[in-house]
Amino acid sequence: MPLQSLRLCQLFVFLAALFPVCQLASAETEVDYAKDIYPILETHCLGCHNSDEADGELVMDDFAAMMRGGEKGVALTAGEPNSSRMFLMVSGKMDPVMPPEDAEGLSDEELKLMATWIEQGAKGPSGPMPIKRSLRTPIIKANQQVAQPITAATLSTGGDLVAVARFATVHVMQGAVESSIRLNADDKGKINSLQFSPDSKTLLMGSGLTGVYGRAAIYDWKSGQLVQEFTVGGDTLYDAVFSPDGNTVAAAGYDAVIRLWDVASGKQLGELKGHNGAIYDLEYSPDGAVLISASADETVKVWNPQTMQRLDTLSQPEGEVLVTKVTRDGAHILAGSADNRIRIWQLKSKTTPAINPLVAARFVDESPAVAMDFTPDGRQLLAIFESGNAKVLSTVDWQPVASLDRLPDSATSVMIRPDGGTASAALMNGQLATITLPTTSAGPDDKPEQQIAKVYLPSSEPLSMSEAEARQAATKQPVESARGSIPLPGHSLVNGQLSDTGEVDWYQWDCHQGEVWAIDVDKASGSKLDPIVTITDVAGKPVIQVRLQAIRDSYFTFRGKNSDQTDDFRLFNWQELQLNQYLYSAGEVTRLKLHPRGPDSGFNVYPGRGKRWTYFGTSGATHALGEPAYIVQPMAPGSEPMANGLPTFDVPYQNDDDPMRMAGTNSRLLFTAPSDGPYRIAVRDTRGEGGEKYGYQLRVRPAEPKFNPKLSALSKELFPGTGREIGVSVDRFDGFDGPVTFEIDALPDGLISNFPVTIESGQQSAQAVVWATPEADAKLLSAEAAATAKVTAWAMINGQRIEKSVGDLGKLVVSANAPKVSATIARTSDPADQNVARDLLIQIPRGQTVSARVVIQRAEGFNGQVSFGKEFSGRNPSHGVYVDNIGLNGLLIVANASEREFFLTADPTATPGKRAFFLTAAVDGGLATHPVTVEVLP
């Protein structure tokens, strides 16, 4: 046989022998990673070895990461099961055995499948991992008698279409016509959100399967056909929304990522990351400029959906944020959170990052808001709460205006109809409840009683008598009085004594409705009495002066307060409190005057310095750390309290210590008669004591609103190019609360001042400055010229101008020496060497902060630090304007430095207008800058 033929025969025999082996190998099915192996890992391994939590640094939810191994090296060796550490651990052949003892291990079938996969080369997925669509859990059939909850509902733009979602089913109603969309078997899941497209032709739903996948799908609601679908692996979507133009869909859910897709192409446009918790709600602004997200991480975030940029994080909520809305005019953001509050922010960051200031925070219900909607005119907000309560807020001041009937079950959605008169709430009991909304204006029967017009009686001389004389006179006059009460004429002065322990002396006098009376009780000279006075009706029941409605709860943090302190009131949720609000705690009512200036400071309450003022006749009290406190507001007479879950407080006509703190522990009470009739006065000792040394003087007199102006005259000489500060203040009596203006007759040449200076309504003080020009000469300031600088103060009281002389400015002398420091206020945009005193206008919109500089010139040899003060470093600002962000050291220029940037904030409560402003350096007895003008803009 030829050699070539022999070789061909041998090759044929070899191939014939090999054929059965090849046939056997092909008969063994190849193991698929995505279909066969990943489910095993998901069941037994991914709980501890995932991208977020990787024990041993081994990540197994990503194939490439798994093949890289963990902190102890490679876990899998392709083709070698017995050399693969991961397989040896799960098969129990190597310690530590995996999964741990408290978890179920792999079955024999799963181990065999994994071994085969490794033998076959441990191949990964061919392409992207398919999104998992099922969850391996026991099937528990629901009771057929249980109502299917409505998990989402929506209204079309025109209001003619209503879509209601139950599990795996959506019903669309157009009048009496109803259509249904049923999901495919593979897409069964809870539908968490619904929204019609702007043209109402399609319907967007956000759904998915918890722990498995999320799905945003667009359907043609008429035919039920799927138009577009966007899927996300990992977990369900809680919300999916159209952009206002309908071209984009934004969706988010449990994985804390917001995804945006193009509706036409289905292409993903980007992802917005930044939240650390599930995202429950999304909302576009009406113009589509921003996208708002509400999250379980207790924040609301503002995004630019065009640039994919985060514009602001609103971090004030103290609980999961469940729902968010944007007002119809796009001016405000709203959010309801698990701390039972609805917060409102002004929307400022529409294109670029900016701070969106908190406008209000409302405690409206004892449970969190879960759904909200605006009336078509945007004037009211309907909020539905977890408790089933439904309440209406006014968007003018964000105050509750109505409590509606409680819903029979928890709601998932609420929709106000186009007529603005009714709303529909989707309930968990399967019902679509109808809510009737109140009209925007109260009817005549709903108006609270009108405030009583105050009547001030003319002043007169008091009738003076002793208690014994008053009792004797009472026996001779046919005047009816309550048993034990001593009748008094209108204006009386009585010298009495509490002779026994626990004794109460009673007096009675007649009033007409609206008359304002002042009741003064002073302890006699040498008396041990600490008086307290109460006004009652003839039956001895205290007359209520005002009812206070709590609108926000808080408590004292860091430390408590004694009964006198005015500074460093640190309160929980202080960011949500506003200036001039009343603060109630332990029977005392005070008022917030100045915001904290940084993280290590608290509120100042009125008057800001000295002893604390109180309001409504209440007296100063000591407050412990953690003691409850409430922001309260007076209720109109006859009005009903809002059911917001917070208490109301009835404040009687009673006083222990003078609210203005001018009379020490003596009592001062202002009484406005609510109706005609006799009223009783009870005088007793606060501690219930009595005896020979417990004498008092009671004065019942017509109230006389008035003021006593004061001026701290100059006592130090002036320096050329600098100024000296002059303090002006006012004592207020008998309820006078108006502005007081201080004016100067004339000022010598060479001097500049900011007179006239006005102490604003309700305030105690202001600051004036007298500034000497660089050319000022002592020769110009003759004694005669200085004497002409007389100051008067005037105010309008009950329609009359009342003027009072205050005195002169004091020592008007210019020194020939140079000051240690000459300070100037400049703009931050001015040249760095700008140190020339001049008129300057600084404008601040209410609710915003602007920056400026203070520049100093130092005298030769003086290099020390220069302080301009702390919380009151700004001199003579409008109420609500203050130097902000100053820290513990205040406004300070450090040693050897020549300037410092500072920040001026205008609170939203600040009154628009112009006012002179300056700074005073604590050098050479206080050297003031040239005054500049600060204008608060609306």
Q: What key phrases describe this protein's structure?
A:
938 residues; mainly beta; Methylamine Dehydrogenase, Chain H; Jelly Rolls; six-stranded antiparallel beta sheet; five-stranded mixed beta sheet; 7 helices; 62 strands; globular; disordered N terminus
Structure commentary:
- There is one protein chain.
- This protein has 938 residues and is mainly β.
- Among the domains are: 33-119, no CATH class; 147-273, YVTN repeat-like/Quinoprotein amine dehydrogenase (Methylamine Dehydrogenase, Chain H), CATH 2.130.10.10; 463-535 and 675-701, Jelly Rolls; 544-652; 706-715 and 729-808; 821-937, Immunoglobulin-like (Sandwich).
- Helix content is 8%, strand content 38%.
- The strands form 16 sheets. It has a 6-stranded antiparallel β-sheet, with no helix packed on it. The chain has a 5-stranded mixed β-sheet with strand order 28-30-43-32-41.
- A hairpin with a 4-residue loop joins β22 and β23.
- Residues 1-27 and 441-448 have low confidence and may be disordered.
